[in-house]
Amino acid sequence: MFTGIVEEVGRVRAVEPGRSATRLAFDAPAVAAGLAVGESVAVDGACLTVVDSGEGWWGADAVAETLGRTTLGRLRAGDAVNLERPVRAGSSLGGHLVQGHVDGVGKVVTPAPGLVVRAPEGLARYLVPKGSVTVDGCSLTVVESTGDTFSVALIPHTVAVTTLGRKTAGDAVNLEADVIAKYVERLLAAGAPSPYRAVG
To answer: pTM of the full predicted structure?
Structure first.
C-alpha cells in the first residue's frame, strides 16, 4: 500500500527484455538505500517487486501484463520516473490509499500546472470533484471532471519534485482511481443484503 507521495525522481538505468519478463533497473540513491529483495516500490504508480539492488540502484522484473497495461512498457534508459516505497504502519498518510495497481493509461491534454488528462473508457465514472486520483504515482485532488477528462491543480512543489511538470500534451500517464469508489460501486451493483448483522 502506498500514499501517492513521491519520494524520489529516479532514472531508468537499463531495460533488458527476457523470455518471461523484462528486467528494469533504476538509478535512485534515496529509494535504493536499505532496499531489500522482495520489497515493493511504486514506479510511476505501478507496484514492482525488487529482485536486485546495488549502491544507488535497484532492479525489478515486469511481465507482459504489466508492460502492456501501464506506461512501463514504453520506458527507455534515461527516462525519469516517480518512485515511492510502501507506507509503513505508524507513518503519516500524507496522500490517500494507493494500491499501486494501475487502472488504465490516460493522455495529457493540457500540461501543468493546470493539468488536464483524458481518462480511458470506464475510468471517468470514478473521478469526482474533490475526490482523489493517482497520476503517475502522485496523489492528486480532482478539480473538475467532464466527460472523459479531468483536471487537477498542481502546486509548484509537486511540479518541481515529480515528473508531472515535464509532461507535454499527448504524453501517456498511469492512472489509479480511488479504491473506495470501486468497492462502493461493486457493493451497490450486487444489491444483495449483507450476511453480517450488527450487534451491540
So the answer is: 0.91
